[in-house]
Amino acid sequence: MRVNTTKFSLITFVVGAAVMAFAHWYKVDYLFFASYTILQFIVLATAWNILGGYCGYVNFGSAAFFAMGAYSSVALHKFDTLIDHWFSGGFAAFLHGVFPLSVPVLIVFGAIVSGIAGFGMGYLTLRLRGSFFAIATLALAVVLQTLVVNWEYVGGSRGAYIIRPESIEFAGVTINYIEYLFGLMLLLAIFSLVAARAIERSQLGFGFATIRDDELAAEACGVPTLRVKLIATTISGALMGMAGAPFPYYIGYLQPSSAFGLEYAVNSIAMPMIGGTTSWVGPLVGAILLGSAQQYATVSISSEVNLLIVGLMLVAFVIIAPNGLIGLVQGWRRAWRKP
Amino acid sequence: MSALLHADNVTKRFGGFIALDGINLEVQPGERLGLIGPNGSGKSTLVNCICGTLQNESGSVSFDGQLVDGLAAHERTHRGIARSFQLPRPFHSLSLTDNLRIPLLYTVHARIGPLRSHGDLNARCHELLEMVGLANKAKQLPRDLTQVEMRKLELARAMAAEPKLLIADESMAGLSHSEIDDILALLLRLNEAGITIILIEHIMSAVMRFSQRLAVLVSGKKVADGKPEDVVRDPEVVRAYLGQ
Question: For the whole model, what pTM was predicted?
């Protein structure tokens, strides 16, 4: 059965609404906290997969794009307190009307900042291939972390506090702020999945696949490979920035070592790998599976076991199912049809 | 100047090694040109310079009356230069139909503008597969193909871009006699349909049957260019192939 993008959006939206309704009815704050992280990883994994899975360019710098989204939020949040310091009179009053920006607006800013960074990274590094590209993205993360650590305005190495409100008024209804953030992240997850799926079936998606398979042949077929790759890095970066933008509000205290944490880089690679990189389903499945396992381990064993689980699962999957769960299932289905 | 392709004094160096040394080559519209030469004589380098995979350091290439120097490979494909690779380079993760879909989406659309409908695209892919006799394998992956089928896919994909000039780089190497006949018949059919073809080949019987004109490269220099019968008797060509 072929489902077009509009129908698919509707379906995911209904599923999302059901999840939201269930969570609202269940009303346990911890559930929101834990699910928020999983949803955030769905966005990150999907974003990584657009460049890493569809185009075959492995990005080790996911944390940098995530952190850029988070820090753009911090920067804009802090700006509110500096308005009177820098401006006066009517303009200051106008700015006070605009700031503080709401989280959805911050998400847009996060997307723009990280999207531009993605474009820049692509332009500088896409002439590199394979492991050279991967190392360059890793270097980007290190450089950016150093910059942020030395940027006093956003808290430097001490980090920045963001006092999030208890609740938010939404169309006359007061909802818990964490529930609000959860809802936003749910929308972002839906958005990224719909976008990834639409890309997969479009001309762009075919272009991405040719880059993964053979760039020289792609050029010979008329695919403008550099431009297509830049589109991929920009979209991928923007989605990661979107995932990062609400993060300071979620965590309340943002420091460079948490925003640039190893777990973001590792998870956003491991999740699509475990799920399968050739389709939008892979990162979704991988993020839910690995994300839940990590949340469970954090509570039941220790928060440090997280990365151990990722490592073990990654090794297991590389050996048992190199094409991820999706590849495994496809293999079974093929074997089923050909008895 | 009515030549379709005009290479003027094309020179390409790799470090200190001169791969192409001032090559002049003209190809007329509708012509069948055979390009031969011993291994390492620069045939593939010349193809790469014409197609934009490599950029020549000096000299110039013009196609269809316009200079194409400095244009990227995909832009030259859009202008109407298509090639097949010496070693087939299919898109491994895409089905045969989708392999052909790429040039249709990226080159034919870029040239004629509006997007064709899904049905049209599929029909055109099927037509191309039919032309090379692979229609019954449309949904399979390239890894399921034999060598000769792979070469046919390579040619079909080049043809999907609806080129004015097709450069077939050793499409027949390693094939059996009947398979060579297959490919040759295919190329002749394409030429009859109005496509100019440059055939690069080692198999002399095939080149002699195919070519209206023969150009010979030896160590990056063009040593002969003319009627096939005359060229193969040229003392310099004989020396290059057989030694003194």
Answer: 0.90
